[in-house]
Structure of TRAP transporter small permease protein:
Amino acid sequence: MAQRENIAPEAIPAAMAERGRPLPQAGRLGRIIDRISTIFAAGMLLAMATLVLEVVMRYFFNAPTTWAHETSMFLSAITFIFGGLLCVCRNSHIRVVLIYDLVKGRARQMLDVVISLVCAFSTGFFAWAAWRMVKKAIYRPSGDLYLETSGSAWNSPAPALVKIFLFCVLIVMCCQFLVLAFNYLRAARAHRKTGN
């Protein structure tokens, strides 16, 4: 079940505008993630332009490129990876709300803390697993530094760069979940003191 909110019809424009911004609980890290997201949005446009260029070069000039396909895949991959991080800071990820919708007030705030901590642990574990992939992608068995390449005619280091980027994003995502957990806990304590 995807999360649904009960929004009055007159409040829909304001709610839609709010969805495009990071949660206040995401803190400064969430605002930074939100700001740099436009770079990755531009990356998708660049990936599309690269594919259009490839179609023109291949079918109109009979001169296909060796780099267009890998470049567009690389740009798309890093954009999708970054998209997960953006969803965390904007709270726009898919979640099961079967239990979440049953609780209100401080209980929901504490549930937010627990969910954020579980997600932080999970992303930390995935970052550790990604580091194992990164080590294989950046070092030869002899221990020399070498970026894994695609093995194609262009032979770009895109596979290694995507793995490194995934590792970095998972670390930042883990930190973002910890920031969320801290701020949710702070809000729950303030809610307890005020008794609202």
Remarks:
- Residues 9-194 form one domain.
